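Hi C.,

You asked whether I'd gotten around to modeling the 257-residue construct. I have! Everything is below, sequence then structure, no commentary in between.
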Amino acid sequence: MSRHVCPLAAFFLAVLFSVPQHALGQLRLESKSFRVGVHTEYFSRALAGGDGARLPGLSAYLSGLSLGYELRAGFSLTLLLGYASSSYRNLIFRQLPFSVDFEGSGMGGFVVGAEAGKSIFTGVSYEIGVLGQFLACLGIQKEYDIPGLAVPGKVKASPSWMRASAGPVVRLTAWEGFTPYFYPCFHTLWGTFSMDQAVDSLEGEEKKEIKSKGQLGLLAGTTLDLSPRFQIKAEAGLYPRTGGSDYSVTIQALFGF
């Protein structure tokens, strides 16, 4: 896990130290605005490993709330809370009494996270900044019956995953109320999946480490200012990897105060 967290920690430190010292003293008192948002997202990511041609994967629907602050120093902070429904495919567990090739959907989990951004340079019709995000999905254990056995058997699945991204963001500001942006970034997902199995008197447990097959994200989107205090944001992401690519789609509504 540490090899993923360190690049993200370095990003946040870089953002912090890029804020001028005189501005740091004003961050608490000179808040421009805060925004409350609701968002929904779907993503599909291939996972490393697998057995032969069958590629393991994770897809999830996320929905939740955000609370963000925009500051006069060009610095923004956002708290993210929500719920995720995750689906896994082709996860193979060989160290149990009976091997399991797991495919399961509707696995719920609570999502917490944070996002930070800093404007670096503003031109006549564009703006360049940096942006980072971290999300953690704390999965809820789910139980499944094992079919095709002469005796009753069950498995209990306990997944969790985390996601981090960091990189530059370019916004085009030439059009009033319409702001396209492009966000190439380091983008990775990792976590664990624990499987407990009980078949008659036989019991076993196996924990599998999971991680995304690719580490790069190419995201693009736009914000639409429908009123001075209401904004819609739409975003699509592409995640290249060996043998293909993955994707995501996000819709967000933001209310400013």
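If it helps when you're writing up: The helical segments are 2-18, 21-24.

Thanks,
B.
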